[in-house]
Amino acid sequence: MTFQTLDDLDDGQRVLVRLDLNSPVEDGTVQDNRRFDRHAETISELVDRGFEVAVLAHQGRPGRDDFVSLAQHADILADHIGHDVDFVDETYGPQAIHDIADLDGGDVLVLENTRMCDDELPEEDPEVKSQTEFVQTLKGEFDAYINDAYSAAHRSHASLVGFPLVMDAYAGRVMETEYEANTAIAEKEFDGQVTMVVGGTKATDVIDVMTHLDETVDDFLLGGIAGELFLRAAGYPVGYDIDDANLYDEQWEQNSEKIETMLEDHRDQITLAVDLAYEDDGDRAEQAVDDIEEKSVSYLDVGSETVMEYSPIIRDSEAVFVKGALGMFEDERFSVGTAGVLEAIADTDCFSVIGGGDTSRAIEMYGMEENEFGHVSIAGGAYIRALTGAELVGVEALQR
Fold first, then answer.
1. DSSP character for 323?
2. What is the DSSP secondary-structure string of 326-342?
3. Can you list the alpha helix ranges (DSSP code H) found in 155-248?
4. Contact, 313 vs 219, CB < 8 A?
5. What is the pairing mode between strands 108-110 and 52-56?
6. CA–CA distance from 354 to each of 172, 325, 378 (Å)?
7. Domain 6-178 is classified in which CATH homologous superfamily?
8. How many Å apart are CA 35 and CA 24, to the nearest integer?
9. CATH homologous superfamily of 183-368
């Protein structure tokens, strides 16, 4: 580990803790989600060790419907840790400073949405962020800074990269475990087969991941929109838009040469779907890709035969990483691919990391438990960057 963790921090200090509690907001109501549960572990440990805790977090972006106060987040966090959590509607104003000074051991105070501060959002160098009024005002109020927001660590925002340059800085438990799991594919040595399940809607992400990991991963199992574009490169009449959704053609124009090169250079490492599923009179129907003469329907999942081909590969693997869903799993009819590969992973003793965002939601939706997997990430963009070898500026700041 290349940064300090909570194990290196003496108990009972006053700490400023950056979490990522960014959540869906429906009709003005903040929705509970996995991030609260994960960060609650860090906060609970700090409470038990007698720390005085002030929390920084963001929600939404200015101008969007989900750009709301963190008042509701404080209540949800309190439910998860089983402990009172106070809230102040300032981030570093006079009332916030007063409430921070009043903290006692075991107290938790959530400060207002960091993105309501002018200093927070512009992507600027950490050195610039460290000199903002936001950082300079708060730094003297605390003994240490703790970054637990791995899922936001790709953002060069003041609350993520400014404080580590002017304060003693540590990684929280979420930061520590996410970093270790998400860098394992590049840094950990495996004796057996390494498999990556790759899907989702963004072909560029898939190509970048596959290009970076082509010498590490033995077998890429493809699905989703990206998988259909690879089928197009292999000569099948799919991967085209048949309506105004513009899901395929634009991505093909941008990435076709890379996809064709990847397929040509690494065909023995790439396993493509053998059948695809679509909606027919309200039901799920499947069609072998060899039988498709012209794309006339929208394909919403890989087919059952594909899952039967992917599952033994997964079960024979020592390590399996998942990036992206293989179909529109939110609709149970088209969950066969995503749920099927997750169930195959859960049935094995392999080292496994399930990518953040939508894919991890399928675990709960289809009756699986997180403890059946090695690690279920709550990171989205940061997970992609870890898989592609890109640096995470928030992690770099901690390492400095």
1. E
2. SS-TTSGGG-HHHHHHH
3. 173-182, 184-187, 203-212, 224-233
4. yes
5. parallel
6. 20, 10, 9
7. Phosphoglycerate kinase, N-terminal domain (3.40.50.1260)
8. 11
9. Phosphoglycerate kinase, N-terminal domain (3.40.50.1260)
Task: Copy the structure tokens of residue 127.
Answer: 């050195």
Tokens of 159: 């609350």
**C-alpha distances in angstroms, 112 versus 94, 177, 289, 374?**
13, 26, 52, 34
Report the C-alpha gap between 73 and 338 in whole angstroms.
30
> How far is residue 300 from each of residues 228, 241, 243, 311, 326, measured CA to CA in Å?
10, 13, 14, 19, 9
Tokens of 100: 């921070």
Say whether pLDDT at 319 is over 90.
yes
- Which helix (H) or strand (E) segment holds residue 69: the answer is none
CA dist., res. 1 & res. 357, Å (int):
25
Task: Reduce the DSSP state of residue 180 to 3 states and report it.
Answer: helix
Beta bridge partners of 109: 54, 86
Read off the pTM: 0.88
Distance CA 297, CA 235 (A): 18
CA distance 197 to 200: 10
For the stretch 320-370, pLDDT in tens is 999 999 999 999 999 999 999 999 999 999 999 998 667 778 898 899 999
pLDDT classification of 46: cutoffs 50, 70, 90: very high
Q: How far apart are the first and last CA of the chain?
A: 13
Q: Where in the chain is the domain with CATH 3.40.50.1260?
A: 6-178, 183-368
Give Cα 23 to chain centroid, integer Å.
Answer: 13
**170-197: per-residue pLDDT in tens?**
999 999 999 999 888 878 889 999 999 9
Contact 346, 207 (CB under 8 A): no
Question: 367: how many CB neighbours lie within 10 A of its CB?
Answer: 8
Q: Which residue has the higher pLDDT, 358 or 287?
A: 287
Q: Please state, in angstroms and rounded to a whole number, the distance separating the CA atoms of residues 160 and 67.
A: 19
Decide: helix, strand or coil at residue 55: strand
Q: Is the pLDDT of residue 274 over 90?
A: yes
Average pLDDT in the 45-66 region? 97
User: Which element (helix H / strand E) includes 171?
Assistant: strand 169-171
- Spatial distance between the Cα atoms of 288 and 285, rounded to a whole number of angstroms: 11
Pick from 286, 280, 293, 292: which is nearest to 307 by CA?
286
